[in-house]
Amino acid sequence: MRRILVLLNADAGTVLDRGADAVRALIERELGQDGREIEVRLLSGRKLVEAISAAKDGAHDTVIVGGGDGSVNLAASALVRSDKTLGILPLGTLNLLARDIGMPLDLQQALATLDEARPHRIDLGTINGRLFHTISGIGFFSQMARAREAARHWKLGRFFVVAIAAFFALRRAGRFALRVTIDGHEHDFEAFAALVTVNRFSGPGWRRARLDEAIMEIHIAEDRGALAKLKAGADMVTDSWRGNPGIISLTGRHIELRRRRSRSWVSTDGELSRERIPLDYGIEPSALTLLMPWQREDASGQETQRGSIS
Fold first, then answer.
1. What's the pLDDT tens digit per position in 32-60?
2. Beta-strand runs (E) in 101-237
3. Is 146 helix (H, G, I), strand (E, B) or coil?
4. From 81, 92, 228, 278, which residue has the greatest number of CB atoms within 10 Å?
């Protein structure tokens, strides 16, 4: 990191609580050391989107984006296979990628972590040709995204927002026939949810231990009746889904989803969209350079990168 561009969502709760000037000063103090050149821009709405999209063309070598998963998704798409490194300040609701790599959610701690972070190549996924960094889901998961958007305005804590969203999502998520084709092999399910991830959930809960396996994973929640559906929904929300026999996980490099309709609501990295069927998923290995935290693992002082092992 020698020339750093920091793009922040000016409407993020952390920015509004601390004040724009205080946040700018904090970032410049924490990251502007050791002769680094740093530019901090606080933007909203369309201006933030345009700045992130144009970031690949600047003179800086590092782009740090402060916002939610949607902003990180946009930045990853803009910087894919470029000579620039992406850093994340997690200022959103879920912060999926940031949590996977172990980024602290507190702003000052996150800045201290970025100050010592190191670049690492990670995989990205595609859905119908568009890039995403973590997850994409239909059925229960897309209904969760819709309900969470509504619940977000109720000024509740994250746990209550997720719990309320899960309740409404379970009520709305109906049974559907799903044909899953993985690397040319077909599987048929009666499901109420399906979730595709970039690399496997091999860490605790809904977390990935590695971001460079060059593989996709799909999790299908089968509809085995009302009580089984309720139990599966609760297990998915409480991170105890691995022991549920109604949730099936499969891996491959190319995944296609078909159901009896031409379009479907899909939640991808927290953003809801209406997508054409079939849903076509693929893996883009080592597509993005990401700043990732490091921690000391043993008495010898050998460092191991969180979220991925070099």
1. 888 899 999 999 999 999 999 999 998 89
2. 118-127, 130-132, 135-139, 176-182, 185-198, 216-222
3. helix
4. 92
Kind and range of the H or E run holding 172: helix 158-172
130-285 matches 3-116 in CATH topology: no
Asked if residue 252 lies in contact with residue 215, where contact means CB atoms within 8 angstroms, the answer is yes
* CA distances from residue 63 to 2, 288, 291 in whole angstroms, order as listed: 11, 12, 10
The label of the residue with tokens 């998961």 reads 141
Q: What is the pLDDT of residues 50-101, one digit of tens each?
A: 999 999 998 899 999 998 898 999 999 999 999 999 999 998 878 889 999 9
% helix / strand / coil in the chain, to the nearest 5?
A: 35, 35, 30
List, for residues 229-267, the tens digit of each pLDDT value.
Answer: 666 666 665 666 677 778 899 999 999 999 988 998 898
CATH code for the domain defined by 130-285: 2.60.200.40
Q: Please give the single-letter amino acid code of residue 166.
A: A
Among residues 73, 7, 72, which one has the least CA distance to residue 38? 7
Enclosing H/E stretch for 168 = helix 158-172
Please check whether the domain covering 3-116 is classified as CATH 3.30.565.10: no
Q: What's the predicted TM-score (pTM) here?
A: 0.83
Cis-peptide into 90, omega within 30 deg = no
Please report, for the chain, the start and end positions of each structural domain, with discontinuous segments joined by +.
Answer: 3-116, 130-285
Angle, helices 107-116/20-31, rounded to nearest 10 degrees: 20
| Cα angle 36, 295, 121; round to 5 | 65
CA dist 232 and 221 (Å) reads 7
